[in-house]
Specification:
About 10% of the residues lie in helices and about 45% in strands. It is mainly beta and about 180 residues long.
Length: about 180
């Protein structure tokens, strides 16, 4: 199977635009049968090399906009962390299935939940880069309650980014996704 970096043509016009930076993609093999109950109806796990995959993807989202409007001031830039897997529907369309998403601004969380049915959660998220070692990045996250107070345990992810750029079938399978499957629309 071959995966392309190029997005397929859109069936209509794009409705949102955004830019990602400081993204880290971490993935683990998972038995596809364990993923199946987590997927929307009509979507099955997308398998590569005999396995389903779970991804943890922290990044900085910026220049978010509803097209054709300009980027949203202040709320259009924030840290996000998503936990995802990959599915393929009955028509053969491959996409991301978001298991949970954390974002640090409440309004985008509420909007994404309402408009797209995505499982966003409000969280306090920070990221930093080691001043002595620019290749080391750290993300921290802790979910918030509606009143803004911390809720539950937090997470900390610290990685050292290597010099090697990986461009193989697996990396394209895990990253060249141009749509998503969800339960609520």
């Amino acid at each position: 199977m071959t995966f392309s970096h190029d997005a397929p043509p859109l069936p209509g016009r794009a409705v949102i635009a955004q830019r990602w930076s400081r993204a880290i993609f971490l993935h683990w093999r998972v038995d596809a049968a364990r993923l199946a109950p987590l997927l929307p109806p009509g979507v099955r796990p997308d398998v590569f090399d005999g396995s389903g995959w779970i991804g943890l993807v922290p990044f900085v989202l910026s220049k978010f906009q509803f097209l054709p409007a300009p980027p949203v001031p202040f709320l259009g830039t924030f840290n996000e962390i998503n936990v995802r897997t990959y599915g393929i529907d009955d028509e053969g369309r491959r996409g991301v299935v978001f298991l949970t998403l954390e974002a640090e601004h409440l309004i985008p969380v509420l909007t994404a939940n309402a408009l797209f049915g995505l499982p966003y959660r409000w969280a306090s998220i920070g990221h930093r880069f080691d001043s002595m070692d620019a290749a080391t990045v750290e993300y921290r996250s802790r979910r918030r309650r509606v009143d803004g107070a911390a809720r539950g345990p937090g997470t900390r992810l610290r990685v050292r980014v290597g010099d090697e750029v990986v461009d193989d079938e697996l990396s394209r399978f895990l990253t060249a996704r141009w749509g998503f499957h969800e339960r609520h629309l």
